[in-house]
Design goal:
Elements lengths: L3 H14 L10 H26 L7 H20 L19 H22 L3 H16 L2 H26 L4 H11 L7 H21 L3 H23 L3
Helix pairs in contact: 1-8, 2-3, 2-6, 3-6, 4-9, 6-7, 6-9, 7-8, 8-9
Length: about 240
């Protein structure tokens, strides 16, 4: 029987490092269209995200901007061409299956790591203040609406970044999508948000490479983002 460290290592290997066989790249005839649509979507989506993140908490325009952002990522992803759900390795070593439980576990591990790091960051006023300002959208707005928008944007971001954009790149897709995903958040002016996007982007890009589809990254992203929205504020309160 393997110990906990060996179990974790085996899990990460299956979830992030060992690609499932049988993945099919886009045919050459579809690549040009996907690349053009992905490039246009990246420009529009980045501008919309920068605008949404700079709207003051409590301003109703935040909801409109967030829905517009979701539309940009979602429409661009669908218009780029077919997207695949992908499959993941099973614990039993049997045929590959949809990576649902695997992705829920990965998202939970990522969430736990971020919450632990937040308890350290919260003690540094210069780093905590921008995070508090970002969370004010949930504090001063409608939490159910913000939660719904968080889920929606988590889904469409993965459809675009780990779906359309990933498939459009001829090489180094993990590194390039991770970098571009982080760069889209620079306009927020929140360094920790950029760092979080880089970490999340790397994990979901590796997951996309391993599974060959967007289902795993979507589940991981939504698990992480909704958990951060609901659990980060009370975690930060513990340090006041």
């Amino acid at each position: 029987m393997r110990g906990p460290v060996a179990e974790l290592r085996a899990f990460l290997d299956a979830a992030l490092l060992r690609p499932v066989g049988g993945q099919q790249p886009d045919p050459p005839s579809a690549r040009t269209r996907r690349r053009v649509v992905a490039a246009v979507t990246l420009v529009v989506g980045s501008a919309a995200l920068a605008w949404a993140l700079r709207i003051r908490p409590g301003d109703p325009r935040f909801y409109t901007a967030s829905l517009g952002l979701a539309a940009a990522w979602g429409v661009g992803a669908v218009a780029s061409g077919p997207l695949h759900f992908g499959r993941g390795h099973t614990r039993s070593g049997g045929p590959a299956a949809r990576p649902v439980a695997q992705s829920l576990a990965l998202g939970t591990l990522l969430l736990a790591a971020f919450l632990a790091a937040a308890l350290v960051v919260a003690r540094i006023p210069m780093l905590r203040a921008p995070v508090d300002a970002l969370l004010d959208h949930a504090r001063f707005g409608s939490l159910p609406v913000v939660l719904a928008i968080t889920v929606l944007n988590g889904v469409v971001e993965e459809l675009y970044f780990r779906g359309a954009l990933y498939a459009a790149l001829p090489s180094h897709a993990v590194a390039v999508t991770t970098l571009l995903y982080a760069l889209t958040t620079v306009g927020s002016g929140i360094p920790l948000l950029v760092l979080a996007a880089a970490v999340l982007g790397l994990v979901t890009a590796l997951q996309r490479r391993a599974t060959g589809g967007v289902l795993g990254p979507i589940i991981t992203h939504v698990t992480w983002s909704t958990g951060m929205l609901l659990l980060l504020p009370p975690a930060l309160e513990l340090t006041r």
